[in-house]
């Protein structure tokens, strides 16, 4: 008799994620939200399957024949394809450029692959392609390779885009979540929550008394200006899916430090605050596509903040908190009433399909 068959399926009973992940045999929207469900999916399914280890960052920094190369990939499924201030085309470029920039890299090359649904209007696809090409030109990156696939009508949503990017990391730059240190000042480059509200208002036909425009932008120029100060920037992160809360929690847990922010110092524009109040959302969890969070040593905070404010994409930069020794791995916010509240990692996603 031969050896008994081995069941290679993952052991769902061993997973530690709260409902609905463990009890659901299928993928749900929350798995793509950038929160706890996404983290559990990566940690317990993908990483063991791939045999991968190490910190999870926006881009991998690799040594290629003595040259430090940043490499990243991303996919974009935003609905609708066009929204105030942008489209899936420029979002695909800016999102990947920003993933590279968060390791301090200078982006150089991008690939782009289109997954198209049968029946999509060529005129609409042309608009997406034009927006993508223009965004790449503005960012100073070259589109060097790509692919196109078509799926049956009803089995897609018009246009999905996958991109990958390559950039060079300057010598001496070491930016990653694990470098957060007690005492670090936490800076954000401007108003949060704008992109998520812009997409939602367009998708659902909501009006908030004014047009909320997406903040989608390529941030590598802002990062370069910060690094030119000579400051030892410890961590950079663009708070996309899951918003500011998800990014801060990921950094706190990776570095094993506590994070404390001051609510009134976090720049939330009035239109975003109003929209979130009406819809029962927390702006800390709403996605951004043109903002970054930086952790820098306290002695470098003022010069980095000044450099950020001198750049068009950092004019609204602010110090929002610091890294603390208590409650390692946890993010807390000091409220306007003098109390504190825990800002936990979101389970799923408040606003799906926003990037």
Automatic annotation (TrEMBL):
It holds the Pfam family AIRS_C. NCBIfam families: hypE. Residues 181-326 form the PurM-like C-terminal domain. InterPro entries: HypE, PurM-like_C_dom, PurM-like_C_sf, PurM-like_N, PurM-like_N_sf. This is Hydrogenase expression/formation protein HypE. Residues 58-169 form the PurM-like N-terminal domain. SUPFAM superfamilies: PurM C-terminal domain-like, PurM N-terminal domain-like. Belongs to the HypE family. It comes from Blastococcus carthaginiensis.
């Amino acid at each position: 008799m031969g050896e008994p068959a081995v069941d290679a399926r993952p052991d769902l009973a061993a997973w530690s994620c709260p409902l609905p992940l463990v009890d659901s045999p299928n993928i749900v929207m929350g798995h793509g939200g950038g929160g706890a469900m996404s983290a559990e999916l990566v940690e317990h399914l993908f990483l063991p399957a791939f045999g991968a280890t190490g910190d999870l960052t926006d881009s991998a920094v690799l040594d290629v024949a003595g040259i430090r190369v940043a490499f990243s990939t991303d996919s974009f499924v935003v609905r609708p394809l066009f929204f105030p201030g942008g489209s899936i085309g420029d979002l695909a470029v800016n999102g990947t450029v920003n993933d590279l920039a968060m390791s301090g890299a200078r982006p150089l090359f991008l690939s782009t692959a289109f997954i198209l649904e049968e029946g999509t209007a060529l005129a609409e696809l042309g608009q997406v392609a034009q927006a993508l090409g223009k965004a790449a030109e503005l960012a100073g990156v070259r589109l060097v390779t790509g692919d196109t696939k078509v799926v049956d009508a009803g089995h897609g949503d018009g246009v999905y885009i996958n991109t990958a990017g390559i950039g060079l990391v300057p010598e001496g730059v070491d930016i990653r979540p694990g470098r957060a240190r007690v005492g670090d000042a936490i800076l954000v480059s401007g108003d949060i929550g704008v992109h998520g509200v812009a997409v939602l208002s367009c998708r659902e036909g909501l009006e908030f008394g004014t047009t909320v425009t997406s903040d989608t932008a390529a941030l590598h120029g802002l990062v370069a200006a910060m690094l030119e100060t000579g400051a030892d920037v410890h961590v950079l992160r663009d708070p996309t899916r899951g918003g500011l809360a998800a990014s801060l929690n990921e950094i706190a847990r990776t570095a094993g430090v506590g994070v404390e922010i001051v609510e009134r110092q976090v720049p939330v524009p009035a239109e975003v605050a109003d929209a979130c109040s009406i819809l029962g959302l927390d702006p800390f969890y709403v996605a951004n596509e043109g903002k970054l969070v930086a952790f820098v040593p306290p002695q470098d905070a003022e010069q980095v903040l000044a450099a950020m404010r001198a750049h068009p994409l950092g004019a609204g930069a602010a110090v929002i908190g610091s890294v603390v020794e208590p409650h390692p791995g946890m993010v807390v916010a000091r409220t306007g009433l003098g109390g504190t509240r825990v800002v936990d990692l979101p389970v799923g996603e408040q606003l799906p399909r926003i990037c």
